[in-house]
Design a protein that fits this description.
heterodimer, A: about 290 residues, mainly alpha, 12 helices, about 85% helix, globular, B: about 325 residues, alpha/beta, Rossmann fold, Alpha-Beta Plaits, 2 domains, 4-stranded antiparallel sheet, 14 strands, about 40% helix, disordered N terminus
């Protein structure tokens, strides 16, 4: 009971920090800018297809690709935001001494860490889900496109953000606040690139190159979850237009949906990495 | 219930009452008890072997040079640093259990609080984390006590160091503590602030709250502490009550017309030294407060003229320096 109260108190404190430090405001401004830009783009797209320069199939394909592209932008903002928030809020607090007075209270360190993680997860996931939902609505209003599985897609984006911030939490228990953000975002980008390289390998039938994507998706599940989200955002007919091989090589289309096994692996990965973070934080001398 | 069971039930009740009486009669566990604490950071042995105790309602000062391991000991007591060896008990509970810190207040040496919160919000946060019900009025009173009533709603980002340290003091005091650990509580305060802290510590003592005070300001420790523990190079170099540590007291007298009998009376009190008209006499250790008036009355009766009587005491500072120098000499002797 007291542990649950500690976790919720720390989670609420983390959200309050994000709001007071104007992180929410900054993200809000960026989101509105991106929404406005994409709204203008989609309305131009609709105007083109209205003038019959594009067939309806082509218009859906284009809308799918651009939607995935903009969603990638949002997931990148969420990933960068939480990764750079996790560093200062955890290792920054232990470095500056803010954690001393808090952890001298009758609370377990694991409850403190879980609260921080929960607050960051709520923040990151809340951001991608809200921004993503707004984007889907903008696309619907401007280009009359509605993705096949919007709820699953947004949930996968939230999961992707959670995976990255769990990694950032682990890093921030072991290295400095600045380094933890840089390393987490670096690994996120590397996995994405490895995924694209793997896709190219698959389309060329080169197994060794294809394996790069598979292995990186296992080591850090962000790219796998992102591909699942793209698959749920895009129009099923888009792949038919591209053909399977072309779709594999193209970074903003996904050929196959996620398997339940992969989702289970992602959940296990989060639990494992969180466990490592807790073990490292518990042993730390403040 | 059958008739046969009744006596047993009464017996149980009596046994329970007896047990409750027994527990009530036990002396309560000390506020702090630690034994054989050791901590090594890489090659540096920060704490070599520290055992100490702070009784309920007692004020204990922790003294020692920089790097003596004072802050490390405090952090080990509070579970912030894990000892390599040794045991800690706080208010009768093992220090490894976070619940032991429910009634412990702490002002860290490195006092920093969430700069995006207001002073009131910081106190509310700590009350919630302590899991103890404290009314909003009591929280406000706590801020008033440390002189921050007018800045209660302001964000900490604009606070000076001294104000942050005052807030840290309020945080340490807010959740009804039975033990307060203050690590350099006046490092950022002006003389007025230091006097405030002294008053607060004395008020805590009056309420039966135990205080462990780490301070560089020896005068501060000397004024408020019942007992002092001196650390040097990670070990307890000396500990005891102030009279025990400071040992004999002295008396300085300005005397003229001193007869031989009066001189003998002076020598009978303790070791005496003369410098012109001034005499310094060591007072007996077991003095119960009668030695000085008795001596003065006898000297006057023996015809001596008494111009001045001054109590002299070895200061804690002199004693501390003495202990640290002895330690250094002993170490250099061992090395040779």
């Amino acid at each position: 009971m007291t542990t649950a109260r500690t976790v919720l108190t720390i989670a609420a404190l983390t959200l309050r920090e994000a709001s007071r430090r104007r992180v929410m405001l900054a993200l809000g401004v960026l989101t509105v800018a991106l929404l406005a830009l994409s709204g203008w783009g989609f309305s131009r797209l609709a105007a083109e297809s209205g003038g019959s320069a594009l067939t309806s199939g082509e218009a859906r394909l284009t809308a799918s690709i651009v939607l995935n592209l903009v969603m990638f932008g949002f997931s990148l903002i969420a990933a960068l935001g939480t990764a750079f928030l996790a560093g200062p809020t955890l290792s920054g607090e232990t470095e500056s001494g803010i954690a001393l007075a808090v952890l001298a209270r009758p609370i377990r360190r694991s409850a403190f860490l879980l609260g921080k993680w929960l607050g960051l997860a709520a923040f990151g996931s809340g951001f991608v889900v809200l921004a993503g939902l707004a984007q889907i609505l903008v696309v619907r209003a401007t280009a009359d496109y509605w993705p096949p599985e919007p709820a699953a897609a947004l949930a996968l984006l939230a999961a992707q953000t959670t995976v990255l911030l769990t990694l950032a939490v682990l890093l921030s228990t072991t290295i400095s606040p600045m380094a933890s953000g840089v390393v987490a975002v670096g690994l996120f980008c590397m996995t994405w690139v490895a995924g694209v390289v793997g896709g190219v390998g698959e389309s060329l039938g080169n197994e060794a190159v294809a394996r790069i994507g598979t292995v990186s998706r296992m080591l850090l599940p962000t790219d796998g979850l992102w591909r699942g989200a793209m698959h749920a955002f895009q129009d099923p007919s888009a792949l038919l237009q591209f053909g399977d091989e072309g779709g594999q090589a193209f970074p903003f289309l996904s050929v196959v949906p996620l398997t339940a096994t992969y989702l289970a692996w992602a959940a296990a990965w989060v639990a494992m990495v969180w466990g490592l973070a807790a073990a490292s934080f518990l042993r730390k001398d403040l | 219930m059958s008739v046969a069971e009744k006596p047993t039930a009464v017996g149980d009740d009596a046994a329970r009452r007896a047990a409750a009486d027994l527990v009530a009669g036990l002396p309560s566990a000390p506020a702090v008890w630690c034994s054989g604490l050791r901590k090594r950071y890489g090659r540096q042995q920060a704490v070599a072997d520290v055992s100490l105790e702070v009784g309920r309602g007692e004020i204990v000062g922790l003294l020692g040079p920089n790097g003596a391991g004072k802050t490390s000991v405090i952090k080990m007591l509070l579970g912030l640093v894990h000892p390599d060896e040794g045991e800690v008990m706080l208010l009768g509970q093992p220090g490894t259990d976070p619940a032991a810190r429910a009634r412990v207040g702490y002002l860290p040496e490195l006092f920093r609080y969430q700069p995006w919160l207001s002073a009131t919000e910081v106190l509310a946060l700590h009350v919630r984390l302590a899991g103890i019900a404290v009314t909003a009025k009591d929280q406000r009173d706590c801020l008033t006590l440390v002189g921050l009533a007018e800045r209660a709603g302001d964000r900490l980002g604009g606070f000076s160091k001294g104000m942050q340290q005052r807030l840290g003091l309020a945080v340490a005091l807010v959740a009804g503590p039975e033990l307060v650990v203050l690590d350099e509580p006046t490092s950022a305060l002006d003389p007025l602030g230091r006097a405030d802290v002294r008053d607060i510590v004395l008020a805590l003592k009056a309420r039966g709250v135990a205080v462990l005070l780490n301070s560089h300001l020896i005068g501060e420790v000397e004024r408020v502490c019942d007992r002092v523990v001196i650390l040097d190079r990670g070990r307890v170099a000396a500990s005891g009550t102030l009279p025990e540590l400071l040992g004999q007291r002295e008396l300085r007298l300005q005397l003229t017309d001193l007869s031989a009998q009066a001189r003998a009376r002076l020598a009978a009190t303790g070791k005496a030294e003369q410098e012109g008209e001034w005499f310094t006499v060591a007072l007996p250790v077991d003095d119960i407060g009668t030695a000085v008036p008795d001596l003065v009355a006898d000297l006057v009766a023996l015809g001596a003229r008494v111009h001045a009587v001054e109590p002299g005491r070895i200061s804690l500072e002199e004693r501390l320096l003495g202990i640290l120098r002895e330690g250094a000499v002993a170490r250099s002797g061992e090395e040779r």
